[in-house]
């Protein structure tokens, strides 16, 4: 019984939150890794791209709510995601046309593009704050819990109640669908194959008649979709605040690099590695250990390895360890 | 326009902007802009050393600036005797154990046979962490409970505050050495992410380790290198001299204090600028640019690229640390939650790129110009938005538009950076 209780406590505070957070990071890291693979630079504006897409989705959600539209138990924001994607895609395509394309034609070195993306980051950040303001916003509605504490106790009689929030379940389901669609697209469709060819060997791809501008456009569209979905899921699960989204840049990049920049599979693995270590290292293990260990050994303190505010330190340490011992990441990404 | 003419003209423009602020707004705001402009110029000289000279992509400026700020607390605040008695020695012992465990792990990695070294390092780190926490934890609690409302930390050394500036540089240099040792030699964007992470970690440490500098409770009332306004106003001699200039004592005292800071900062800026110019034109500077422009060729000529990168990374970070100490001295308080990457990392980058990377005068110019814009965009935007919305009826839209003016800053900075990168990619004062 104690073992079961321990497992339920572990699920509540470590496994479920980490799976949800990891899915959000994985979707974000997929965007970063696609831009890196096709356009060959680290896009510092990605966090703010997520913020912008989410902002559009939030505005549409408010509009839908005021019209009385709802999805019943599901959050209304799910209906608004397509609008968010369209808004985000328009912004990204406009940015590419006005800003990035110039440097692509010039064949500028990647680090110049990184600096350019810094400028884009400022602009997106300013835009988001101009429209929606810098405040913290929650926009989740619908059923709050998939499994709540009382029901679970009645079903099982365990002392430790399992709680699954609706947003966590939605995050995981959506992430699985999106990733499956993305991989189907990349491996089965002609456009997806041409994208992979372009990423593997640009010259050869150009030689075989692939239109580079089309590949780039499609990439931005996919990045807009991934960023908006990741942003909306994160916002539903936690809350929306432009500055937090900017800060997500660090764990997202850590995930992409740990997995191997340019490798979609790596981005997903990296997302979960980062999320699990962040949650596990900043979680107070007292409760779980209290169930597992005999009473005489039960810990006095919280058994928390690091304060929650050090979560950035965790993604950073994992990043450093991977870079030192396996510089191309877990899945052998590019090292241009 | 010839570069020899362009430089003085650009600086004249900055002078006109600042003097104009003095005439249109007030001399106090003008001096405020000048002082922070001086600090920003020092910071951008530091970044220019790394990026302009050596092509190192450091986006962790905020961390080094914050370390400089920490040094002001550690050097200038009076020591808290009770806190030292409660757990000072134990905290030092805990830190020594932590550092010792790390050193032992690195040594073990190098010395122990290949088969066992992974296990040895893991065992050392885990044991070291456990002992470190066991030693440090109670001491931290003891220190933080000493008069928590006003102190609750170890305090500083009680030395004159000007000592903090070189110490801030040294602290930043030490941190840069550790980061450089691990992250340099990796690809440029990996270094970028690594420095971005370090900066966040430094801020997290400042926010959480209350025993060090009171965390988010802030340290206020830092000693000053210049006299206090109140004392000046009480000094009859000063009041008399102020009256001679036709100024009331309050204005005169605030101007006097700000001018004092300005002179100190200007002295530092001149020293750093002269040193940077000498370095740029020395064989060392030429070697750095050679490495930046073609690493492989420089390596073939027998230059130790990684070592030189480490050297310039440490130097540039030290300058950022000095500037951070100067800034905290000017503020008179250390507030960890005020450090934001957009303001302390990316804005400095805008200064360097807009001013002209690789050119020290360009970096200084960028520091002044971008800081001026950063401060003045808000009132300008306010006026503009007021004009635009004057036709609108009062309502939520109008108040939203007027309220959002403060976010124009970020948008403007981004646009300035993008426009300069597009139309004048080498900056306003290009490298020769």
TrEMBL record, chain A:
Membrane-related topology note: Multi-pass membrane protein
Any one Pfam family match given in the protein's UniProt record, by short name: BPD_transp_2
Gene Ontology terms for molecular function: L-isoleucine transmembrane transporter activity; L-leucine transmembrane transporter activity; L-phenylalanine transmembrane transporter activity; L-valine transmembrane transporter activity
Transmembrane residue ranges: 6-39, 51-71, 77-96, 108-127, 162-186, 215-234, 305-325
InterPro entries documented for this protein: ABC_transp_permease, BCAA_transport_permease
Major site of localization recorded for this protein: membrane
Matching CDD domains: TM_PBP1_LivH_like (cd06582)
Family: Belongs to the binding-protein-dependent transport system permease family. LivHM subfamily.
Protein name (record): High-affinity branched-chain amino acid transport system permease protein LivH
Species per Swiss-Prot/TrEMBL record: Roseivivax jejudonensis
TrEMBL record, chain B:
Spans traversing the lipid bilayer: 7-24, 30-49, 56-77, 89-109, 116-135, 155-178, 190-206, 259-280, 309-327, 347-375
One Gene Ontology cellular component: plasma membrane
Record's protein name: Leucine/isoleucine/valine transporter permease subunit
UniProt keyword Hydrolase, yes or no: no
Record bears the keyword Transcription: no
Location(s), subcellular: Cell membrane
The entry's keywords: Cell membrane, Membrane, Transmembrane, Transmembrane helix
GO molecular function: branched-chain amino acid transmembrane transporter activity
Topology term for the membrane: Multi-pass membrane protein
InterPro entries linked: ABC_transp_permease, LivM-like
CDD domains according to UniProt: TM_PBP1_LivM_like (cd06581)
